[in-house]
Amino acid sequence: MDAGLTALLGAVVGSLATLGAAMVTGRAAARSQFGQWRRQHRRDAYANYLGAVYDRDVALDAVRDALRADRPDLRDVDEKMERFTAQVRSVYRAAEFVILEGPPSVVEALYGVVHAADNLAEVMRRMVHDAHAEDTSRKAADTALASEREHLLYQAVKGFRAAASDVLGDSRIRVS
């Protein structure tokens, strides 16, 4: 073999190796970018959901505060319930994005939050109904039950945060 042919063959092999390395590097970069894009979308969906949950909980706290009086102002209670209901709708809208973006572990944790929130809301609606009927027979028991269910909701939200954190690669959050 003469030197020219050897040089040409070496250049072809070198070019093919460089092209192959570039393809592998390009694919790895594309996967990395897609992974980052997906992680960002998930983070946004989870953060929006948690923000909506927080706003709903603030609205529910306002209803509970309005019901604490011996004779609550029913117009005030109803206005606060309307705000709470609007916030519930926002939570359900935000939950749809979590369902679309999240893996099963996060969706399962989300359903835990939904279940706990529904259980608390059921008690609160009954308390509002009783206030309208001027029935105080269950007020003390329902107030205690609402506190218990609020704690269960808090635990469910912590579970959701932990599941979301695990998916996003930050497993520092734990449910206790």
N/C terminus separation: 74 Å
Instruction: Provide a count of the helices.
Output: 4
**Gross geometry:** rod-shaped
Weakly predicted, low-confidence segments: none
Q: Biggest sheet, in brief?
A: none
Mean pLDDT reading:
87
Number of strands: 0
Strand content: under 5%
* Helix/strand class: mainly alpha
Tell me about this structure.
By secondary structure, the protein is an all-alpha fold. The mean pLDDT is 87. The chain contains four helices and no strands. The chain has helices at 3-67, 74-101, 104-132, 139-168. The termini are far apart. The radius of gyration is 28 Å and the shape is rod-shaped. The protein is 86% helix and 0% strand.
Give a concise summary.
The protein is mainly α. It has helices at residues 3-67, 74-101, 104-132, 139-168.
Topology:
Blueprint: H1 3-67, H2 74-101, H3 104-132, H4 139-168
Q: What attributes does this structure have?
A:
single chain; about 85% helix; about 180 residues; mainly alpha; 4 helices
